[in-house]
Amino acid sequence: MTKPGDQLLFSTVKRDYRPWLLLLNAAVATTGGLLLPAALAGAVDMALSGTFVLATIVFLLVLAGVEIFADAIGIVLAASITARATAWLRRRLTQHLLTLGHPSKFAAGDAVSRVTGDCGNAGTISTTVIGLAVTVVSSVGSVIALALLDWRLAAVFLVSAPLAALLVRTHMRLTADDVLAYQEISGEVSARLLDSVSGLRTIASAGIADREAGRVLEPLPRLAAAGAGMWRTQAKMMWRAGLLLPAVEVAVLAAAGFGVMQGRLSAGDVLAALGYAALGLGIVGQMTQLTVLERTRASAARIAEVLDTKPPERPRPQRSNGVIELRNVSVEGALHGVNLMIPAGTFVAVVGSSGAGKSTLAAVLGGLSAVDSGEVSGADSVGYAFERPALLGTTVGRSIGYGTDSDEVQVRDAAVAAQVHDVLIRLPQGYETPMADAPLSGGEAQRIGLARAIVRDPDVLVLDDATASLDTVTEAKVDKALTTALPGRTRIVVTHRPATAARADFVVWLEKGRIRGTGSHRALWHNEDYRAVFTGGE
After folding, report:
1. Which pLDDT score, from 0 to 100, does residue 86 have?
2. Considering the entire predicted model, what is its pTM?
3. Helix boundaries (H) for 105-219
4. Considering just the CA atoms, what is the radius of gyration of the chain in Å?
5. Which CATH class is domain 6-307?
6. Where are the domains of the chain?
7. In contact, 38 and 266? CB cutoff 8 Å
8. Under a CB-based contact definition with an 8 Å cutoff, are residues 334 and 372 in contact?
9. Which of 128, 164, 328, 450 is the most exposed place for a label (fewest CB within 10 A)?
């Protein structure tokens, strides 16, 4: 039965020529493996007859050498194919996750699980399928070889074929659901764990570590049940296979013994028959690989689920001479029927109580977030700075210039504007200090994130609580520096500080996803509900 990810696995195999090299190498190794029992039988018969035939010995040594050499090449090829396939899947998945944007239906921890674990599993598809195919070919070849020795041996062996096929089919059917459940629950645990790690200090300060640990570990019984189900299925198949293989070997050995007694077979032929019987039931011994195949298909299905998710239709800001306008914009659970016009070059403060929709509005104004209905028009070039910036890049300087072609002078100017230059030049290696070695406070990290937005020289600068960790004096300096560094640019600032709102040209006051009011901070301050946004009702 096909799964949603099977087409993706096919594309993964088809895109690279190396699986064909691995298949060719496997064909050589399989041919050698099928000829080896016959060559060994010839060597045994030669030894028992007391004669020495150089060609027999050379043939045996050549086959052994081919087996060793082909195995070595196969290991190298398999590692290369798996690495390239995994990298390709991760690149596709990461690009699509970025296209889906934020927020996404896939939790951060679950997305990480799919990018790391699932792509790693799905990347083994070529080597797994080729390995199983080689086993099937070896089994068929072994039956033919047995028939060439004595048709009675092949007939005895074929009696076990229906049992072997039933074992394989039952194993794949029983293990499929458990494998998929295991992958999905692992992703759920990863999502919960990442959430907890992100809020570690909050959890510790609230004294709810035990309760949070219980929440993270809540799926473990289901994970254990899925894992136990896989192991039970595998154990059941293994002991059945463990009984089937020696039973078939004994039956073939008995038939070969009669052949020796009747003069049809030699002692070497008996040894070859045992070798071919073991090769013939090789597919039964590949139960672990069948489990790997099911895990690969389950992982591919999880990757395909993301790739099949259509990205939202994001608002494409149209040229409007710098004016940003929202017309009856709604975002489910955040904004409702918002109408707003922001003139070019305006400093706008977005305020409101927690959950009012401030961050969503800022994201929509800059074109970062999709809308469910309504129209958005505005500037194409937008720079963002966040309350908790993810500082990417190997060094501090490269983190500021991340995603741009900015040179050292532009990076330094942006740092000066963000009031973080004096901090960075005191680092051990200045702007070349590795990010992992830079001892930055929360406010310093925010200012680096702000510098990263400034260096893009945007038409619109969106600051989503990006100065929340700065003291009032430093924030005022940053505001003044931004006016100098980005003159005439539109600035949209999400803030909880009345001083910041007071410096804005006008304020957008949100309440429960709707615009409660707009105007200057001074004018709005006369409203008791507006004052409560900053004072908490005190």
Report:
1. 92
2. 0.62
3. 108-113, 119-122, 125-149, 151-158, 161-198, 200-206, 209-217
4. 34
5. mainly alpha
6. 6-307, 324-535
7. no
8. no
9. 328
